[in-house]
Amino acid sequence: MQKQAIFQARLLPYVLVAPQLAIVLIFFYWPALQAVIQSFLLQDAFGLSTTFVWFENYLELFRDPSYFAAIVRTFFFSFAIAVSSLSFALLLAVMADKPLRGSILYRTLLIWPYAVAPPVVGVLWIFMLHPSLGVLSRYLRAMGVDWNPLLDGDQAAALIILAAAWKQISYNFLFFLAGLQAIPKSVLEAAAIDGARPMRRFWTVTFPLLSPTIFFLLVVNIVYAFFDTFGIIDTMTRGGPGTSTVTLVYKVYSDGLLGGNLGSSAAQSVILMVMVIVLTGIQFRFVERKVTY
Amino acid sequence: MVEEEGFRRYVAHIILWIGIAIVAFPVYIAIIASTQDNALIANGQMSLLPGGHFFEVYYQTIFVGTSGSTREPVGNMMLNSLVMALAIAIGKIAISIISAYAIVYFRFPFRMPIFWIIFITLMLPVEVRIYPTYKIVADLHMLDSYAGLSLPLIASATATLLFRQFFMTVPDELLEASRIDGAGPVRFFWDTLLPLSRTNMAALFVILFILGWNQYLWPLLITTRDDMQTIQVGIRKMITTTDALTEWPIVMATAVLAMLPPVFVVVVMQKLFVRGLVETEK
Questions:
Q1: Residue from the list A98, A126, A276 with its beta carbon closest to the beta carbon of B4
Q2: Using CA atoms in the order A78, A79, A85, A86, what is the torsion angle rounded to 10 degrees?
Q3: How many domains does chain A have?
Q4: Residue A61 domain-assigned?
Q5: Residue in B with minimal Cα distance to A32
Q6: Of the candidates B91, B86, B79, B127, which has an alpha carbon nearest to the alpha carbon of residue B210?
Q7: What does pTM read for this prediction?
Q8: Which of A99, A232, B88, B252 has the fewest C-beta atoms under 10 angstroms from its C-beta?
Q9: Looking at the domain assignment, is residue A126 inside a domain?
């Protein structure tokens, strides 16, 4: 698609794209290229000499059980966060889609957590579920749960998933509500006339019609769980106890921070880049039907 | 609509209020904790009702900071966050709108390659290029500066796409009309296109401001001086690993202050927010 009415100018268009292009090349492409180059190099302990080692850094990573564990953990977190947040948000959206008194107020009261930053989410939840002073920990202990997410890896993971899913409810709710409102009421009425009860109407009419939204949100939630949970993890557990809450992004950060292995950190970045490309590709393939660029 | 018996409606109201309670509870606890005495909280004796230390805690948080070795007033952190968020939001909108203008309204060599170069940055989030970007920013002597905080995040493929899409829907007659009036490309942009884009820019600004204010990983890496910290980074540093030293009322007051601007924006500019969110995501 192209505009028919255009301007004629030689220099002006370049001047207009120059700022964006400069930032993109300096801060996006150059570092990404550096990461790719770096991932093929091995630096000695003092940073004095580097050798080209082909895929050695990558092979090293895949031989490392802790990296493999981080991959599995990241996918598990993503799945758990997406499923729990999506299902709760869908329930709320279905309720809010009904013609209720005060439905605008409900929407306002449910969407604001979108604006809470991940590190703040982490702080809020660790405070509530802190082993010694958390207000909810009291009840957990009263119920006989030996609650200590600072020592127990599984509990720490559960805490991260809970906090991350909580933050994402509002986003999912908003998109589900928009999706539900786009379903023509006549379809539901037709199903009702055919004698389908509300539950059945939901599963046979609403849910299938909502599937593009569900798929879109699934991808967005996975991307969120991959990247935006960094702030939550860093304030709540800092990857611990041990490495039980280290995700792929957290590992790039912490491995590079120790400064030990730049080649390995770069190789991890490149692997992440490939994952982002795949996820964005999927997202665009399925969303392009809705939009034309 | 189809039959909605009274009973089902009650259930819907109840489920929605439960949802709201779940969503609000952590924030309620934070607000309560920020009005209480630290000793009480540290003992695990925190009350679920407001305490009497509201003014004291917020005064200390905003103007003094924690009593630890790094006393950094949270007011200053908020200022840093504000400058960064505004720079990111305005910067992204400014450079995206002009590059989209060039791409839509001009034919020039390398037009499409340039478009693709911008588009592909979608796949290079800061998380996948942190250390090399850090090195470049360090080489440019931009550590601990507002430029370093904002510039590497300013490029925006989504904003460029959004403006491009919008410009495509602007009728060609407008351009022809202003050409008859003798307007060149700059005047057409300034007098016609920019006013038409106002709602789009506002919606985008709301989203980008929230995203900018909530940045964490990047400021964490490139700020070493305490007086350049953003509030998101500052709050993390207040939680000491040796628990006993954490001043929870101040931490919670900081959390409340960190939430306030973006939540305010979402609630007050809800229409623009929803529009911006839906448009930037497609």
A1: A98
A2: 120
A3: 1
A4: no
A5: B129
A6: B86
A7: 0.89
A8: A99
A9: yes
Tell me which chain B residues have a C-beta less than 8 angstroms from the C-beta of A91. 15, 19
Query: Which residues 94-123 in chain B show a CB within 8 A of chain A?
Result: 94-96, 98-99, 101-108, 111, 114, 117-118, 121-123
CATH number for the domain that contains residue A90: 1.10.3720.10
**Residue B163 vs residues B97, B106, B117, B157, B168: alpha-carbon distances, Å:** 6, 15, 16, 10, 9
Distance from the A169 Cα atom to the nearest Cα atom in chain B, whole angstroms: 8
Is residue A215 within 8 Å of A282, Cβ to Cβ?
no
Nearest CA of chain B to the CA of A218: how many Å? 13
- pLDDT 10s digit of each residue in chain A, 293 long? 577 777 888 889 999 999 999 999 999 999 888 888 888 877 766 666 777 778 888 888 888 888 899 999 999 999 999 999 999 999 999 998 888 788 888 888 998 989 999 999 999 998 888 888 888 888 888 888 888 888 888 889 999 999 999 999 999 999 999 889 888 888 888 888 888 788 888 888 888 888 888 888 888 898 889 888 999 999 988 887 888 889 999 988 888 776 667 778 888 888 988 888 888 787 777 665 543 33
Q: Which residues of A touch B11 (CB under 8 A)?
A: 95
Contacts of A231 in chain B (CB under 8 A): 216-217, 232
Residue B278 forms contact with A (CB below 8 Å)? yes
Chain CA centroid to CA A109, Å: 23
Which of A74, A112, A193 to substitute to test the interface with B, most B CBs within 10 Å? A112
Angle at A63 between CA A57 and CA A64, to 5 degrees: 90
Which residues, including other chains, have CB under 8 Å from residue A6's CB and lie 6 or more apart? B105, B106, B107, B175
Nearest to A23 among B95, B239, B263 (CB): B95
Q: Which domains does chain B have, with CATH numbers?
A: 73-281 (1.10.3720.10)
Please report whether residue A200 resides in a domain: yes
Complex-level ipTM: 0.89
Residue A150 Cα to chain centre, angstroms: 24
Q: Is the residue at A11 inside a domain?
A: no
Domain that holds residue A277: 72-287
Residue ranges of the alpha helices (H) in B181-247? 185-188, 194-196, 198-213, 217-222, 231-238
Name the one residue in this structure whose structure tokens are 């255009």: A6
B213 touches chain A (CB under 8 A): yes
